[in-house]
Structure formats: structure tokens, C-alpha cells
Amino acid sequence: METLKRLILLGASEEGISAAHACGYHVIVIERPKKSISEKVTALAEAIYFADIWDTDAAHKVVEKIFSQYEDIKLILSFTELGLETAAYLSERYNLKTNPFETVRRTRNKNLMRNAFASHDDLKLQTFCGKADRLPEKISGLLPMIIKPNDGFGSQNVAYIKNQSDWEKWLRTHAQSKLEWILEPFIEGPEFSVETVSSEGTHTVLGITEKETSGMPNFIETGHIVPALLETEQKQQIEKIVKKALTVLGVQYGPGHVEVKWDVVNKRPVVIEAHTRPGRGLYSVSALSVQRSQPIRTWHIKL
């Protein structure tokens, strides 16, 4: 007789709950209050609870209740940005398989990621981080640059700074902003998204997608080329630097979504961001449809 096993899923992801069922799990969902939940998730979930999944204390109270009512809970997962840190924190509290909380935190906080990369010449970049009034007033010798929220995601509030005049205008516009920002070099060249899966610290590249964007100044994604049209040496270099970045960050398990630019000036790949989740929308589907037969979320749960 097959042993019953359950997992807690932070965020009512249709893909996540479908993958969990494919792996033989009963799924208990925790979702944000007032967040709509699809009919599919409602039908597949064993139970649904509500809490702010980015609030570790609020989510912990609900998880305590779940553990008191259900047995054989093997995993606490999230495939959504807002639930990643909470899932890692709670997994550590209950001694479940997970990436370390500090690893997930480094992928959510761009400055912490850059600090982790600082001792590696092939990963480090010169960056500045802080609220607008703490950033340098003069950056003429470093231009062009990119400015974006330190803990942002989805290309939100990204701006291209071409010259000192642009920078002074940006500083005036954001003088009252309460956000923390990171200022980093603009890398000239095409951008790629690399989908990975990790198990016990060993990383496998599942696919590479070339991103098409609206370009300057906000770089909104407009399309994708799958698979990316890369020369063999370029592909090998990208895969090598992505695996190194994941190792340096301390990633042990699950999906990874790493954004890389090919520096056409220095002829090398540059890691821009790294995440312990699948790529949104097309990324995870396209990468796997080209190179694998199982969704990334299924790989994550099986690991």
C-alpha cells in the first residue's frame, strides 16, 4: 500500500498543484486573503487556508494549525516570488528538505547576491546600493548604468542611465522614494534566461531562452526565442557561469531561473539575477518543451 504524503504549497499555483499531484502528493494550499483561486486549484487541493504568504509569522501560525491536523507532511514549497523566503524559513523550522533561508534571501535581495559574488572575478560587478539620497551624485566615469529596486522583480521600475544628466534627473525624481535601489553597470549585449534544476547541490541546465525586450529605457520583455541561437562555446560558457553562480549562492534543491547577458565588449557571460523558482510563463514551459518531457515544478517536487 502506497504511503500517504502531503505537501504545503504557498500560493495557489495551478502548475504547482498539478505537478504535486503528478508526484503523488496531497496538497494543502495557503494563499493570500482575498486572492482569487481557480476552479482547478479548488478541485485538486485537499484543503485551502488563507494567510499573507510573505509574512513568515502569519504563515507560521497557519502551518502550525496544519501540522496539528494532518500527518505525513513532507515538503513546504512555493513557486511564487512572494512565498519563496517564507517556504524556506518554515521548511527549516520543520526540518524539511529546502534551500537554506539565507540562500533564498540572497536571490531575493540583489545587493546580498552581489556581496556573495564579490570575491569571484567572473561574477562580480561594481554596484551601489541604498535609498536614492544615499547613492553617489556623480557617476560619469561609470556610465552607462542600470538602476532598479533592490528587491524588485518582473522588470518593474528599471531605468537606463545614459549620462550624468539622466542620473541627476533620476535622483530628483526619486528623492522621496522609500525604496532601496541598486545601481549597476549596463552590459551591452543580448539577454538570456536560463532554466535549471538542482539536487543536493548539483545543477542541471534544462534550457536557455533569448529574451526580446522593448529596449531602453525600461527593458520590458516583449518576446522570446526558444531555444536561444548560441554558438557551442557561448552556450558552454553560459552554462558554466550559471552553475557557478548557483553554487556560490548555496542553492541545493529545486528550480532555478538565472538571467544572463552576453557582454559583447568583453566576450563573456554576465550573471544579472538569479532566482530559486521557475521562470514565469513562457520560460518554464518553453525550456522544457524543447529539452525535457516534465514540467520544472514536477522536477522540483521529485527532488
From TrEMBL:
Gene3D superfamilies: 3.40.50.20, ATP-grasp fold, B domain. It holds the Pfam family ATP-grasp_4. PROSITE patterns: ATP_GRASP. Keywords: ATP-binding, Ligase, Nucleotide-binding. GO terms for molecular function: ATP binding; ligase activity; metal ion binding. Residues 110-301 form the ATP-grasp domain. InterPro entries: ATP-dep_AA_Ligase, ATP-grasp, BL00235/CARNS1_N. SUPFAM superfamilies: Glutathione synthetase ATP-binding domain-like. This is ATP-grasp domain protein. The lineage of its organism: Bacteria, Bacillati, Bacillota, Bacilli, Bacillales.
